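Hey team,

Filing this mostly as a record. A colleague (T.K.) asked me to run one chain through the structure pipeline before their review meeting, and I want the input and output archived in the tracker in case anyone asks later how it was produced. No errors, nothing strange. Just documentation.

Input sequence:
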Amino acid sequence: MLGTLCPIRPTGTTRPGGVSGMPRARHTVCVTRAAREGARAASGWGMLASVKFLVLWKLDLSRVSPEVAHAVGRMPDYGRRLHREGKVLARYHVVGAHGGAWIYEVSSHEELERLLGQAPVFNVSTYTIHALADME
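Output structure:
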């Protein structure tokens, strides 16, 4: 695993558009230095135009409430918007699980962190993140 979302500390407020009444968990994307350098080397250049990440997200069922159900209902619209913008290449449901597998194409891991933080289910999900490299 090249990266995960690492909790920093919970706060007592929620972000706009988040799940009301739920404590906000702040996260950061922990992408290893080796993953960043490997992605740069795979491009053949010192700088990348974009980086692909596989993001597996899973809803934390211990936090299910009517507000969480509403947040889950907003995820398809959020995913369609990111797809139109070219930030999400593909979205999949993980069969038998409460979550999904999305492939992001972004300019940096900071952009990925920002996009994940804007997701309606960000505060009630766990994430596993893998940096991807083309095999061509």
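Quick notes for T.K.: The CA atoms of residues 77 and 83 lie 10 Å apart. DSSP finds three helices and six strands in the chain.
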